[in-house]
From TrEMBL:
Species the sequence originates in: Saccharomonospora amisosensis
Name this polypeptide is given: DUF4097 domain-containing protein
Residue ranges constituting the DUF4097 domain according to the UniProt record: 141-282
InterPro entries given in the database record: Toastrack_DUF4097
Any Pfam family hit: DUF4097
Disordered: annotated span: 268-287
Domain of life: Bacteria
């Protein structure tokens, strides 16, 4: 195991820790504000954490100043409780916990209320097939390589996932979700944002209140996609027999594939259910 820390010319701290690779592990990341990048591939497990002022939301400084003023105005213990803990005592990167306990890698940024939190950028390289848990408040999450099980939750931030071989759950209150390949059951949900899926093989459920939903290549299992006011497009893989149900409350429903009312001669390998409140719903060829 190697642990290094360095101060950059502008004063930001960068910490790096390296752990021996012994096959797939569990990666557990918790960040309040910043950005998270995880890559699954060959080589040792490496964690890099740095202060990232560029990822700080533009309103954070003003909100933090207001909270600080209110805390000073109220004074005493109550004022301190109102202001909350701050990261002013040092670099957020320095205060981030990086630890490997058995087969589990923990990365924990300081627990600070959002307006007072200092943004940190977390980069992790872990073995292919590792499991991933990420929780953030304000941070985009990017995952490349092949993961095992994936669970990502963020209040605000886009989520990008290259490939998941295990069960997958992605939830964001406000942000886009992009997934290149799903090989098992998956639940993807965003309050306001589009969802794009490349290949889908498994039981896939997608929800968004006001975004477009796209599945470019559905081949097996089931696909259930629902949006309140966005368009839906589902592409069916060539020669796949699918059972399909498309509906829209105020949009058009269309299919460029041959659709029959009678059951096919062989069992359907794929079931598709798509519903939009006011957008269009279309069935297309994969691609």
């Amino acid at each position: 195991m190697d642990d290094t820390a360095a101060e950059q010319p502008r004063g930001d701290v960068v910490r790096t820790r390296t752990f021996d690779a012994e096959g797939p592990i569990e990666v557990d990341i918790d960040v309040t504000v910043g950005r998270v990048q995880v890559h699954f591939g060959d080589g040792d497990t490496v964690v890099e954490v740095r202060d990232d002022p560029a990822a700080q939301p533009p309103w954070a400084e003003g909100a933090a100043n207001l909270i600080g003023w209110v805390g000073e105005f109220l004074g005493g213990q109550f004022g301190a409780q109102f202001a909350g803990n701050t990261a002013d005592s040092g670099s957020a990167a320095e205060q981030t916990r990086i630890e490997k306990l058995g087969n589990r890698l923990l990365v924990r940024a300081p627990k600070v209320p959002v307006p007072k939190a200092t943004a940190v950028a977390v980069k992790v390289h872990a073995p292919t097939g590792s499991q991933l848990d990420v929780r953030t408040r304000l941070a985009p999450v990017t995952v490349t390589g092949t993961a095992g099980r994936v669970d990502v939750s963020t209040a605000t931030g886009d989520v990008s996932l290259q490939r998941a071989e295990g069960a997958t759950s992605v939830r964001t209150g406000s942000g886009e979700v992009n997934v290149e390949a799903l090989r098992a059951s998956a639940t993807l949900a965003t309050g306001t944002g589009d969802v794009w899926i490349g290949q889908a093989d498994g039981a896939v459920m997608v929800r968004t209140s006001s975004g477009d939903l796209t599945v470019t290549d559905a081949g097996s299992g089931s696909v259930e996609v629902i949006t309140g006011s966005g368009d839906i497009r589902v592409g069916i893989r060539s020669e796949v027999v699918a059972e399909v149900e498309l509906s829209s409350g105020g949009g058009y429903v269309s299919s460029e594939l041959d659709v029959a009312d009678t059951e096919p001669g062989k069992q359907a390998a794929l079931r598709v259910r798509a519903r939009s409140g006011s957008g269009d719903a279309s069935l297309t060829r994969a691609g």
